[in-house]
Write a structure and sequence with these properties.
The chain is α/β, with parallel strands linked by helices. The strands form 2 sheets. Strands 4-1-2-3-5-6-7 form a 7-stranded mixed sheet. A hairpin with an 8-residue loop joins β9 and β10.
Length: 255
């Protein structure tokens, strides 16, 4: 049972947006249709902690948008929102955040990592190794799209004394009230965060892009392993409020 002091208030912050062909969201479905996506950070606060899941898109989207245009044309380009301004609007500040984590390790989640100079950086060991440090197979895109070179350098050389590696394969609690489970599916660094709130558990993961993925058991289209998607949906069904990482329907939600 979670203690009252270990429960969090949650703000869902929109950090960017894009539009993609529907089969990227829904496995082998929706040909010639398009889906709007929102990128999100979650700000978790209680009396002891201010914790952020994802740090927004990088300031320079040149390489990312070049790849997106090559993939699906100008309609696919990513647009960034100012995370720092959003935090200020919520009465917070980058200096107040004392912990950050990511799902998954990608340029659009790690873009603002260097803004949080006082925060411990929580990295899942498996995702860090298999997506960034020593991938078992050649990746389909450059490492800069997993994590920009500048941000990788920052983590390894400037902030390594603040890095905490954890093992989430069997699920673990990285802080009281924040449990993390490795899910895979989208990337080797894809995680599910279970966050205790006064109204029950809230689960946030990129194994589901939109609510329909989770609710109807439809794997995401851009999956490294569709069976991992189905396994994750089954695992978290009925375990709390599930937030699909790129669903515009969760923009601005509070718990």
């Amino acid at each position: 049972m979670t203690a009252e002091n270990d429960r969090y208030n949650i703000n869902v912050i929109k950090t960017g947006e894009a539009e993609v062909p529907a089969p990227e969201v829904y496995w082998m479905e929706g040909w010639e249709k398009w889906e709007k996506l929102s990128f999100h950070a979650l700000l978790l606060r209680n009396n002891d902690s201010s914790f952020l899941i994802n740090t927004g898109l990088p300031a320079d989207l040149t390489e990312r948008n070049r790849a997106m245009v090559n993939f699906g044309g100008e309609r696919c380009i990513f647009r960034s929102h100012d995370l720092k301004k959003e935090l200020e609007r919520l009465g917070s500040d980058t200096s107040e955040v004392n912990g950050i984590a990511f799902t998954p390790l990608q340029d659009y989640t790690t873009g603002g990592v260097s803004l949080f100079s006082r925060a411990k950086i929580y990295l899942d060991r498996r995702g860090w190794i298999e997506d960034i440090v020593a991938p078992a197979v050649k990746k389909h895109q450059s490492r800069n799209l997993f994590i920009p070179e500048k941000n990788l350098h920052y983590i390894i050389f400037e902030a390594w004394n603040r890095v905490i590696l954890f093992d989430s394969t069997a699920s673990c609690e990285i802080l009281p009230g924040i449990r993390v489970t490795w899910v895979g599916c989208h990337h080797r660094s894809s995680l599910a965060f279970q966050i205790a709130t006064s109204s029950g558990n809230v689960i946030f993961s990129d194994c589901s892009f939109k609510g329909r993925n989770f609710e109807e058991g439809i794997p995401i289209g851009i999956a490294e392993n569709t069976l991992e998607c189905l396994d994750a949906y089954s695992k978290f069904k009925g375990k709390g409020t599930f937030l699909s990482a790129y669903d515009p329907e969760i923009d601005g939600l509070e718990f």
